[in-house]
Amino acid sequence: MTSPISNLRTLILLLLVSAPLCFGQEQDITTRIAELKRMEAMEPENPSPKYQTVLACLNYAVMNPHAEPAERLLAEAEQTLGQLEQMKNADPSNNCALRGYLYMVRIVQDPATNGQRYYLDVQQYFEKALKLNPDNALAQQLQQKFQEGMRQAGR
Amino acid sequence: MSREFGGLVFRVHFCGMKHLLTTLLVAITATFSAFSQTRIDGKVSDTHGPLIGVNVFVVGTLDGGITDSLGRFSFTTQKSGELTLQASMLGYEDYTRVADAAPLRNLDIRLREKAATIDEVVVTASTYSMGKSAQFKTLDALDVVMSGNSCGDIVAALQILPGTQKVGEDGKLYVRGGDSEECQTFVNGMHVLVPYSTNVEGQNQRGRFSPFLFKGMSFSLGGYSGEYGQALSSVLPMETTDVATGDKLGVSASLVDWNVGGTKAFRRSSLSFNADLTSLGLYNILFPDRNDWTRPYRKLSGEAQFKAELSPRTVLKSYAGYDWTAVGLHQDGRSLSMREHIAYANVTLNSNLSNNCTLFAGIANSSVLNDIDDALVAGDHYHNFRNEVHLKADIRKRFTPAFKLTAGLEDYVRNSRKRYEEIGYDLGYNLLAAHLDANLRIVPHLFLNLSLRTENMSGSREWLLMPRATLSFVPGDRFQASLMAGRYSQCPADDPLARSKGQLRQSLADHLILSLQYSTRKTLIRVEPYYKLYRRLPLLSEGRYVAEGYGYSRGFDVFVEDASLVRNLQLTAAYSFNDSERLYLDYAMPMTPSYASRHNLRLTAKYSIGKVILGLADSYASGRVYPAGTTPYYNSLDANITWLAHPKVIVYASLNNILGRTNIYRINDDGSPVAATRDRFFYIGIFVSLKNNKAYDISNF
User: Fold this and answer.
1) What confidence score (pLDDT) does residue B131 get?
2) Of B4, B283, B548, B596, which is most buried with the most CB atoms under 10 A?
């Protein structure tokens, strides 16, 4: 049985270990997004860098929903996804998967408030992504993860 | 292994002589590159100081850096000669400089904050948006169902908002001192002639549409743009849900209504249906009221929707609904019997053309047939048939991020046939309208909506010109201030029009509204003073109606919504003060309309505990003035509970007017009060999804 003191010690140790890790992650994601933005500028008509930018932002935010840069990255993701949805050569199935992912991250950030607000949107966007392209691996994986989460929450 | 650096590709193969040659080549190239590298450095700031995390790079390469905590950056590029340097950060205008690479040292870059485009700013003045259309969502379909006293009725749920007035005897929407006829409903932009189903006096007339039909509603309490006409006070545009992505089948049942509905989803289209029977027969047996019913209220409805994405940018939506309503009771020595048939259908096409251009076209038809036996005296008969065809086309184009223009044309063709015994009329007229709306960003944070609407009613040579303007100051996400002014018109109701012998013209209302709003993610505060001036209202004079009525309505609304005080608790408070007076219809002198109460207060609380959501609402309205006296104040304390029993089962129950107060709705000319027919109303319902791969999703609508 662990005492409150040992719990506190473990918590401090975790904080000490995770602080530089978070700082490193933050630097990494900023650098990664910056590189992707440079690629976007190189090929403004190519949807791939924009797709990667949104994905990178959301991947970071879903893993670190309350980290300091999460809100900024979600804003970046939302803006870039808006641009992607306006591009004629962008894959609508991918756009739907990313839109569903964006709402999914919002739920992860604040399940109590955003769960009821966005859960249907998440499901509908993943469903639509798979209707447009049944082989969309990202949509398949995200849908599966989300359904697992819903099942766990429903227990 | 391959790595790309600014377009130069090195392929490194570690094998024998080839390896040696390659190594030499790499070394020579690297040495050459080292000599040709140019360092670029400097700092980036805005008006407040250094900016952290700005991406500074040479366009067309991956060469770049990110500013540190002091706003400094430094990197090298292999590009020589003329290059384009860019500094970018979310929320700021991109900085671009074309220059020779050599002297790009110790740069001092100033970024300017990016002004929001007209598409990014949602001006919320005088409007309560629901669904995903607004940043702060105040109400969606589930909220409507769970709203304290709504019993799933959109109109009742909207009455938690400020500006609406509690008129218990019919339950319709009365906004800011305006009659219920002055509030018009639109589905997918198309007009609905009669949004309520009929009922006898003292009984709530429910809205005809299920909240689950819609993904968004935008309830405007005044000051709306030129797109909407034929409404003196307010408009309620609602947008149906998008093409469904999955099949659904569901049923619901309660003490008063039974419903079955479903959706079949195809690759790019979906077909939905819904059938509903509402009957108060069982309820009247279980909980008798003060009426002597001969035929309890019954409504049978059928609805169908077909939606299709004709292309990724073109969506077709169609809706068709039919309602049959019948109700009868013994009243004042007669057997009042009412029957109503309502059919409504619309088809709309929305297409995003290239070049930021959107095209909208729609057609709608409303038909309403009413028959009443023993309407005024025993043995009489009343018959009324009304029909409206609404045609509409809009084109919208965004020319720049700071300028958007909308132009539209619409036509209403209306017919009405009324008979009471041998007396009656046949009425028909056409109303042609055009509008032009310009949205401009004058300077950063300052937006102007200018619109002009013109209308001509057949039989009149008059082309009404109605200018409208909204000036909005939006300095950030949290605060908005708007000033709205505009002129609005509406054709008189059929009866005054038929009895005017061509003397009536369209009634007019001028709106002046100031809106101040502060919002955070969990709190919204809005204050809106307003003033409305009515002219050309129908006034009965010497047996015929003339356009000489007038009036005013002034007051202010306050709305506070908060979800930050206690976790999972959402609170709203809405207060409206209204002072109005008008001379119209058969009034002998200017007076406060009998539907208007000076003070209206609504308080609601919603609290979630696991899978249970509890709701409490209190509605208060001060007394209403009648020639024979003033009613006591109205008050109703309502409670509801929603239980998410299973991902496919939702149970809902509510009790209205817990305290059992007998609310008085009206004072007759002889001084006798007309009270609500029952003091309390209990509702319990269950929604079951028989087929649906989504949890907690109502499958019927």
Assistant:
1) 61
2) B596
Residue among B620, B602, B606, B555 nearest B221 (CA): B555
What pTM, to 2 d.p., does this model score? 0.84
What is the domain-level CATH number for residue B438?
A: 2.40.170.20
B267/A39 touch (CB, cutoff 8 Å), yes or no: no
By mean pLDDT, which of B4-8, B322-326, B602-606 is the weakest? B4-8
Asked if residue B340 is part of any domain, the answer here is yes
CA atoms in the 13 A half-sphere facing the CB of B106: 0
Nearest to A37 among B55, B522, B693 (CB): B55
Domain assignments of chain A as residue spans, ordered by start: 4-154
Number of Cβ within 10 Å of residue A2's Cβ equals: 8
Instruction: Out of B86, B114, B142, pick the residue that ends a domain.
Output: B114
Residues of A at the B interface, defined by Cβ within 8 angstroms: 30-31, 33-35, 37-39, 41-42, 72, 75-76, 79, 92, 112-113, 116-117, 119-121, 123-124, 127-128, 131, 150, 154
Question: Same domain for B291 and B195?
Answer: yes
Q: Tell me: the pLDDT tens digits for B187-227?
A: 999 999 999 888 887 777 777 888 788 887 889 999 999 99
CA distance B277 to B256: 8
A27, A54, A124, best to mutate vs chain B, most B CBs in 10 Å? A124
CB contact (8 A) between residue B694 and residue A124: yes
Asked if B162 and B223 sit in the same domain, the reply is: yes
* Cβ atoms within 10 Å of B179's Cβ, excluding its own: 21
Contacts of A94 (CB under 8 A, 6+ apart): A51, A129, A133, A136, A138
Would you state the pLDDT for residue B701?
Answer: 59
pLDDT in tens, B453-478: 999 999 888 999 999 999 999 998 88
Please check whether residues B645 and B671 belong to one and the same domain.
Answer: yes
Per-residue pLDDT tens over the stretch A53-96: 999 999 999 999 988 889 899 999 999 999 999 888 999 999 99
CB contact under 8 A, A38 and B62: yes
Please count the structural domains in chain B.
3
Domain A4-154 has CATH 1.25.40: yes
The whole-number pLDDT of residue B15 equals: 35
Determine the straight-line distance between the first and last CA of chain A, rounded to whole angstroms: 28
In one letter, which amino acid is B469? A
CB atoms within 10 A of CB B82: 9
Q: What CATH number is attached to the domain comprising B85? A: 2.60.40.1120
Tell which of B40, B245, B398, B697 to mutate to test the A interface (max A CBs under 10 Å): B245
Beta strands B214-220; B234-240: pairing state? antiparallel
B183 and B85 in one domain?
no
Q: Are residues B407 and B544 in the same domain?
A: yes
Q: Are residues B70 and B204 in the same domain?
A: no
One domain for residues B182 and B279: yes
Contact A131 B59 (CB under 8 A): no
Q: Tens of pLDDT along B474-498? A: 998 889 999 999 999 999 999 999 9
pLDDT of B618 strictly over 70: yes
Q: Nearest to residue B534, comparing CAs of B235, B234, B232? A: B232
For the residues B282-299, what does the mean pLDDT come to?
A: 92
List, for residues B69-98, the tens digit of each pLDDT value.
899 999 998 888 889 999 999 889 999 999
Mean pLDDT to the nearest integer, B314-322: 96
- C-alpha distance from B448 to closest chain A C-alpha (Å): 24
B487: domain range? 127-691
> ipTM > 0.85?
no
B49-50 vs B423-443, strand pairing mode: unpaired
